[in-house]
Amino acid sequence: MLDLTFFKDQTIVLSFDGCTEPDGGPNYVADRRVEIHDTYVAQQIYETKGYDQHSYITIERKVIGWDCIHYRVSIRFGTLGGQGYDFTVTKGLFGLRFDGSMEWIM
């Protein structure tokens, strides 16, 4: 996973919506400040703790087709702080192709 030093004083709540957590459980995230929860539990944490020492990363599968998958990654770290990205993984004759773009920032 990417460098999480930006969130140095935060607990990061990572959730997956519409897709399963990658194999390896929490071991694929070296940073112990990352908590992995389903979207329901992540929402409960947000409702009780908000952004007080918590940031939220959600990976959401938007669409799955016969040759591609679309994901949205939302990174929220404050009431007016966050970024959203859309990614597409396409399977073609020459293997997988990955495309992504920033879709929103606040």
UniProtKB/TrEMBL annotation:
It comes from the Bacteria. InterPro entries: PLAT/LH2_dom. PROSITE patterns: PLAT. Residues 69-106 form the PLAT domain. This is PLAT domain-containing protein.
